[in-house]
Amino acid sequence: MLRLGGIVLGAALLAASPVAAQDQKPVEFNVGGGFTGVYGAASDRIGNAGMFAAGLIFHVNPVFAIQGEYGWNGFKQKQLSLDVFPQPLQADGVPTDFFADGNMQYFDFNGMFTPHTSGKLKPYGVAGVGYYHRPVQISTPGVGFVTVCDPFWYVCFPDLVPVEQVVGSRSSNDFGINFGGGVNYRMAEHASIYFEVRYHYIWGPEVSIPSAVQPLPGATSTPTRANGIFVPFTVGFRF
User: Fold this and answer.
1) Is residue 197 a contact partner of residue 165, using CB atoms and an 8 Å limit?
2) Cα-flanking dihedrals φ and ψ of residue 54, to 5°?
3) Dihedrals phi, psi of 121, to nearest 5 degrees
4) Which of 99, 153, 163, 196 has the highest Cβ tally under 10 A?
């Protein structure tokens, strides 16, 4: 009798497992957008951003998933003032506006942890590594000569150079990490809305700034890295 009961119980569990597995799609697509805050020294060079992200989530089991994601952040233009000299040997420079804007794009690979909870609202944590592309565009209405070194502009001219050598587009490709969390609210069987906050840290290139060079705000004469700290706030959908 006990053996028969064990067989019946085992058969019931085996029959129930496919049903439980159907409660969660093995693969989900996520898409969202929101606001990205810029922090650290980079906040003196570029403005905050609007952002977009899209990715695929592969559910290994009900608790753990793997995510591959692409993100785009469009930064607001930042205005800075530098002394521009009409001639290389002229003693007094003229304060001139320079404008910096750009974007940040990344591909990241993350692990996602969703603890067992009841109900439609489920918290989750996420962490991983990424590859980041950060272009910057420098422009100015001024003409003449300027001396400037700054890692976030990816330039270092320790001597006076024509303004045309500073303006233009340049970029950096670097590795970084990200971690954060959010909540996911299931609206239908295979559709949900999520809110997420994530912290991104990027290791940027290093620039040594000579003490005689005119630094941008926040820059020093010691070697400085163009490390990035960004915090996106995202609202999106999974389906």
Assistant:
1) no
2) -145, 145
3) -95, 120
4) 153
Q: Can you tell me the distance from the alpha carbon of 97 to that of 216, in angstroms, rounded to the nearest whole number?
A: 12
Domains of the chain, first to last = 25-238 (2.40.160.70)
What single-letter DSSP state applies at residue 85?
Answer: B
> Shortest CA distance to 134 belongs to which of 175, 179, 80?
175
List Cα–Cα distances, 69 to 57, 153, 178, in angstroms: 9, 27, 12
Residue type, 169: S
Quote the tokens at residue 144.
């003449």
- Residue 2 is predicted with a pLDDT of 38
Contact 53, 104 (CB under 8 A): no
Q: What does the alpha-carbon distance between residue 125 and residue 219 come to, in Å, rounded to a whole number?
A: 35
Integer CA distances (angstroms), 39 to 36, 134, 153, 202, 205, in order: 10, 15, 16, 12, 17
pLDDT in tens, 72-123: 999 999 999 999 999 887 778 899 999 999 999 999 999 999 999 888 999 9
pTM across the whole model: 0.83
Instruction: Name the residue among 223, 232, 219 with its Cα closest to residue 41.
Output: 219
Residue carrying the six token digits 């290389």: 88
- DSSP label at 158? E
